[in-house]
Amino acid sequence: MKKRTDRKIAIFGSAAAAVLLPAVMVGLAQAGVGVPKGRSEASGNSKPIPSFGPATQPSAPGATSASPTKSPSAAKLPNVPLNSNPFGTGGSPSSTDPDTDTGSHGKKPHMPGGGVSGKYAKAPDGAAITGVKKVGSRIFDVTIASPALGAAVKTRVMVPKSWKSNTSKTWPTVYAYHGGNNNYTSWTKDSNIEQVAGPYNAMVVMPEGGSNGSYTDWYNGGKGGIPEWETFHIREVIPLMERNFHAGSVRAAIGLSSGGQGAITYAERHRLFKYAASYSGALNITAPGMPLILTSVNRQAGTAIWGDPITARGNWRAHDATVMVSKLKGIGVYVSSGNGQPGPYDNPNTPPQDAGRIGEMLAGTMNDNFVAAAKRAGVPVTSHLYGPGMHNWKYWRVELSRSWPAIAKAIGARKS
Questions:
Q1: Which of 105, 143, 188, 277 is deepest in the core (most CB within 10 A)?
Q2: pLDDT tens-digit series, residues 383-397
Q3: Kindly report the CA angle at 361 between 77 and 345, in degrees rounded to 5?
Q4: Helix or strand or coil: residue 412?
Q5: CA angle centred on 217, ends 270 and 87, rounded to 5°
């Protein structure tokens, strides 16, 4: 989650946010402020956001704990350095990122300017492929003119060894969603996806997700409109891949940080996937205190993404993976997360205020709540809540390898 829900839980960044705001937020968060009175939207007894005290403080969830516990005692959040992002994932936004084009937000979806080639079949809403560039022996960057985003953005596609453009055959497909403040190149740049999935007859589609998109159609004060990330991913990218690249209808979704939230919520809301995997995902956005943190630190989006957590309560719930967990029945699920304490791949002397520690503390609590809710709902979930570990790719590469056999089996992918 470092640049994580990515920009969602995204920039602890101005002097006020860095020094005064965090302490106030956490104090309120631990009191449950930030959600309507009563129990959590997610379950009935979900864990509140943990305190952010020293490493010796037992406030973070345990490695495998899934049972609700009492709220930790209030503790002051250490001063967070300026421009720090607890949910960052180590990259940077695309140059054409719709999230940064605030002038387009809330406008009616429309095709962006520029020519559209008749070479490729369009999506039902008119979204069209305007360019394909081969960037590796089996990797293509596909430019998509998207009405949902009002812009042209890219999707990276890794095809299997047996793939051919002039065939009627289709291949099992994995849709991989990147984390916050990153872009469509993240999976091939930061992960081991080529080594893990490359030997299999599976296609991997890595769409742009926006630096701040949060894998949803933005609320924009209740009027909706651009950017519509969920529409782009579900109603534009998928049909374009299936109509033009021979992507199959047997699909899996994977993601990290906010992309992990996207993978799980898309599986819940659309049931288009046989399997969904999340690594350090933001899976309980309505946990006590979390709405306050999300709307306070996400200075770019504010409440534009899901709306005010009180007045637009229903919209928040409709995008909370833990609230909707019962909809995962019949779908394979894998979730993993650390707890923010320095782990085997981290500097043991990392200070408590480090962004990677804070981000994974939040992720750990949300994943703990998700696993507990799944158990109550009778939804089988494979979870790896591995305890010590911060918010970074060193852990997500391991988790991708660990979860891949189940993903491949669910979609019928085999070694070539």
A1: 277
A2: 999 999 999 999 999
A3: 115
A4: coil
A5: 95
